[in-house]
Amino acid sequence: MIFTKTTKKIRVQFMPFRDGLQSSFGGKVRLNDFLPAMKRAAELGIRHFEFGGGARYQAPYFYLGEDPFEDMRAIREAVGPDVDLQILTRSVSGVTLTTQSPEGLQLQAKLMKEYGTTWDRNFDYMNDVENLIR
Question: What is the pLDDT confidence band of residue 1, given thresholds at 50, 70 and 90?
């Protein structure tokens, strides 16, 4: 074990409300079923959640009759303004399933910010760095 003379603050990212729901249920979980747990986690001190993107963007539209933007707004209201909320985007596809134009990706980024996102975790399934910087 390594000890230091100065205390270091460790920040963690809490992902079960996006990745866990996607991995276990394909993201097909209604907001009202997990929002109380997310709110409580924030009250207990969690300060960074992944809350959207991936299946948590498509599943509400396709299967649940919910609007993921309104879900993001409700999550922001539940956890408060000081909590970081992160989405997962798919390279040049953003949160969609097809390649988007740069203008489409800029619009997506603007909307995500408007609805409470503070971080965007972007990945490219082929690790194509050029796709990540477009």
Answer: low
The pLDDT assigned to 4 comes to: 80
How far apart CA 50 and CA 56 sit, in angstroms, is: 10
The one-letter amino acid code at 83 reads V
Enter the pTM of the model: 0.84
Cβ neighbour number for residue 5 with a 10 Å cutoff: 4
Tell me how crowded residue 131 is: count the other CB atoms within 10 A of its CB: 17
Distance CA 17, CA 49 (A): 8
Domains of the chain are: 16-133 (3.20.20.70)
Q: Do you know the residue count of the chain?
A: 134
Residue 33 confidence (pLDDT): 97
Give Cα 43 distance to the centre of its chain: 19
